[in-house]
Predict the structure.
Amino acid sequence: MSTVISNLINTLILEIVAINTIQKKFLATSLQSLSEEDSILFDIYLKYCVEEKGKTLTYLAQCYDLIVKDTFSNQLYFKRHQRYKHSSYKEVESLVYRNDSYMSMYMYGLAISAFLWKNHTEMKSFFKDNLPKEQRGKYLEIGPGHGFHMMEAMQLSQYDYFLGIDISPTSVALTNSILSSQYFGDFHNYHVQECDFIQWNTEDRFDAVVMGEVLEHVEQPQIFLDKIYTITDENSHIHITTCINSPAIDHIYLFRDSLEIIKMVENSGFHVKQQLLVPYQETTLEESNKEKLPINIALVLSKKYD
């Protein structure tokens, strides 16, 4: 039985295609692959955006289109120069993280892509499948962004307290908004704050640490991994995602292969328990590596004890 696609989703797709006709075939395929569960959640998310946030479907289509065109532009630059356009946080801070208008569109576009891009849907499923459902204690998410994955963790797990920290005030506001909206659940046991993870002082130890798509945004990812080691213990669930040869406006650290990432996490004292590598659309991992195309990687880690 095929998944029933809501009027809101269909209208959004029409709005996107009206802006960017090249997306028509790709989006038609994406909708065919959309599971019933994700279709329902996508519809709720769009209702939340329209009813709670006052966003039009035209605006949301523009947000998605921003992601598509920015990604394409940066891919062209990467192909010509074999490096990312920016290499320091200072270069992208005012362009992205302190630019509320751009950052808002960026986050809404990314949230939509989590339902429409195969690599993003696979990464989301891997996160949900590996999230401990019965573990208790404290959950930390570093860089929750649009807040959607933190919200799903709150829906699916039994942690007693959820903390999100993000360097972007726009992301903090978006995460707080989605968690307090009651469109996805009645959440109370959480706090989201604006801060730099590296400068953040805490004596707490966390039973889960999630850091999705952050390492490629920082100048020294090893320091982030080292700090995660200090705030976790032997039984902590640690979920890290990043990307390889994946240019974007605010990607500043270039990972060229998965071995580089594995070595980095092992240097911080972690053991890889589970791994997912997702190649570029319609290619194999071998082809993506050979052509230096984007690859997504997700890792479930634990501390190494010799």
Notes: The CA atoms of residues 68 and 109 lie 9 Å apart.
